[in-house]
Amino acid sequence: MQHTKTDSDATSLTASSPPRSPPRRPVYYVQSPTHDDEKHITTISYHSTPALLSPTASPPRSYAGHHSRESSTTRFSGKVSSNDVALKRFAKPWDTQFNSIEEEALLDDDVSEKRIPRRCYVLGFVVCFLVLFFVFAGILYGAAKPQKPKLTLTSIAFERFMVQAGSDSTGVATDMVSMNSTVKFVFRNTATFFGLHVTSTPLELSFSQIAVGSGTMKKFYQSRKSQRLVTVSVIGDKIPMYGSGQLLKSSKGIPTAPVPLKLSFVVRSRGYVLGKLVKPKFFDRVECSVAFDPKKINVPMALKNNCKFL
């Protein structure tokens, strides 16, 4: 017997039927990051339909038909796809954060391994400073070496030259020579950026390899690009001549012929360019041929063309 559904029956049926879109329960996810940067996401619970927690939350009745099941399945599939996208979006920041932490840790390890101790910086600075300092000192030394001082012998004057008989300290009879003379020369410092400390060996006048007179020059300082006239007294008193005295012919103690003599000395000069670290040294060895003329007592004799520098 077929019954016709009334409006009241349809309304009661609609009111008693469960809703098509039941409320979804919250979804919980646990992420387990690993060192090999793989993404593992574990779903603890997921329900497309509400769990049977209360009598009112009953599953849909069978009268919904095949269409209801297909719609439910379609909704389930659609929700899974959207949730997968949400999971990926949720997991990406965590994955990026863990990757950043691991990269920062690796960078910190590299920096700690490549970090140079402070003592190495100090040692490197000292070595570089010393290298630059010695290079600079070498440059100064090379620039100062060609600036050699100039020495010019001007004149020699004999005040006295006498030959007389006598004996040495042991009582051996021999001819004795006594003489006084004055030697003058000009010392010029040609350097442009340093002064010179000048000394000299004793100036010697010799006859037949026997020194008949000597004199000492006082040491002095010569400033840059300047010059001075140096005067040295060469004196000899009763110098024994032994066999060489026979070559000296004299009358009343005065030689009757010119006496060949040799003047020799060494001028040493030293400059202090960079304190005592850069000290260029210069040596001038001088030899001059001199002839004593009895007729030219107290008369200066030029030495400019009679000297040579060794």
TrEMBL record:
Chief site of localization: membrane
Low complexity bias: start-end ranges: 9-18
One Gene Ontology term from the biological process aspect of the record: defense response to other organism
Residue segments, region Disordered: 1-78
Keyword Membrane among UniProt keywords: yes
Transmembrane regions listed in the UniProt entry: 121-144
Coiled-coil residue windows: none
Subcellular location: Membrane
InterPro entries the UniProt entry points to: NDR1-like (IPR044839)
Entry keywords, A to Z: Membrane, Transmembrane, Transmembrane helix
Taxonomic superkingdom: Eukaryota
GO cellular component: membrane
Protein name as it appears in the record: Late embryogenesis abundant protein, LEA-14
Protein's organism: Helianthus annuus
Lineage, top ranks: Eukaryota, Viridiplantae, Streptophyta, Embryophyta, Tracheophyta
